[in-house]
Amino acid sequence: MNAQTKIVPGAPSAEARIARYDWGALAAELDGQGCAVLDALLTPEECRDIAALYPEEAHFRSHVVMARHGFGRGEYRYFRYPLPKLLGGLRAALYPRLAIVANDWNQRMGIGQRYPETHAAFIEQCHAAGQTRPTPLLLQYGPGDYNCLHQDLYGELAFPLQVAILLSEPGRDFTGGEFVLTEQRPRMQSRAEVVPLRQGDAVAFAVHNRPVQGTKGSYRVNLRHGVSRLRSGRRHTLGIIFHDAT
């Protein structure tokens, strides 16, 4: 199967898909909750086509079985370059919108790093820092599988937001397996956010830290994400991470 054929004829471009969302409202949701849902980013047919790539090793640079590393249960594969056309297009189209949020967050948190306007320019920075391995990945879960709470950093240069797209349909393809985000604020107990998604929905969320307004200005909170235990069926997810790995 040729990964370059994964765009359905007549489907809108990645840029056109991303442009139809209210990014002011999404940025406000990211500010308030650390995550925001992009409804129906992919069609069911596109979801099935991407999930069908999983057994085809030619598309991937590595295969990780979570239990071997204490990550949980389940498995995933990192794509190799060149990325499938639809995936590469979404990565490039999402980045500029999220970079606006990322730069605002860093300013509020007193972090000096600023992100360039285009994803190509950011990837150049990653490669100059020795981070050259692509990080978009395809995850697969079966009954009893789960993903422990974690952060996807991969190197010193890390983009503070990422996107996960649910490729399977809850209630039909699988049960359980909810996307979970936890947030730890200083001197407070952790807060959990369970994000309901349908097939083709995407969730953008904080990778590591985000700013929260306090009485004395903004302060950093720490976030982790994971997937709860799958009760039945099979679940596929496409993860779009914007920095490359060492």
UniProtKB/TrEMBL annotation:
Alphabetized InterPro entries for the sequence: DUF2086 (IPR018655), Oxoglu/Fe-dep_dioxygenase_dom (IPR005123)
Keyword Nucleotide-binding found: no
Keyword Ribosomal protein: no
Domain named Fe2OG dioxygenase: residues: 132-245
Swiss-Prot/TrEMBL keywords: Iron, Metal-binding, Oxidoreductase
Similarity field: Belongs to the iron/ascorbate-dependent oxidoreductase family.
Protein name (Swiss-Prot/TrEMBL): 2OG-Fe(II) oxygenase
